[in-house]
Structure to design on (66 residues):
């Protein structure tokens, strides 16, 4: 599976601080819970990657609309 492989799975994503000073990304999908904790600096890096991906995605012409 790659980043471009589409899946028909619904998931809920929650993001927030923990009481230990970490940033938690919590993914809930069907019967699976995935808590991922990051330091604030790591979370900043992830946020930058998300912003860069969003900027790149805006430049992609969706299939059928070229």
């Amino acid at each position: 599976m790659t980043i471009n492989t589409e899946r028909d799975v619904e998931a809920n994503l929650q993001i927030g601080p923990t009481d230990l000073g970490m940033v938690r990304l919590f993914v809930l999908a069907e019967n699976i819970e995935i808590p991922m904790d990051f330091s604030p600096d790591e979370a900043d890096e992830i946020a930058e990657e998300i912003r860069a991906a969003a900027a790149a995605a805006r430049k992609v012409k969706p299939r059928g609309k070229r």
In short: Residues 40-59 form the longest helix (20 residues). The radius of gyration is 15 Å.
